[in-house]
Amino acid sequence: MDTSTHTFSALFEQLGLASDTDSIQQFIRTHQLFSSEIQLHEASFWNEAQAAFLQDALGNDSDWAEVVDELNNSLHT
């Protein structure tokens, strides 16, 4: 099992997205979830594999859970 701490940048790479600081900030600005009722993995902008990864990370408390939770908080503010 990988016990390393994952970074925000590594999460974006894992999701197949641009992972530089400017791209991450742009993604967060343009993909805000304005309702707390929308769960992160249910957002319409994820493809099926991305949504499954995010749901699994949080649902199974994987080693990605902390950084996925950080993304969730960033998109819901």
From TrEMBL:
<protein>
    <submittedName>
        <fullName>DUF2789 domain-containing protein</fullName>
    </submittedName>
</protein>
<dbReference type="InterPro" id="IPR038086">
    <property type="entry name" value="DUF2789_sf"/>
</dbReference>
<dbReference type="Pfam" id="PF10982">
    <property type="entry name" value="DUF2789"/>
</dbReference>
<dbReference type="InterPro" id="IPR021250">
    <property type="entry name" value="DUF2789"/>
</dbReference>
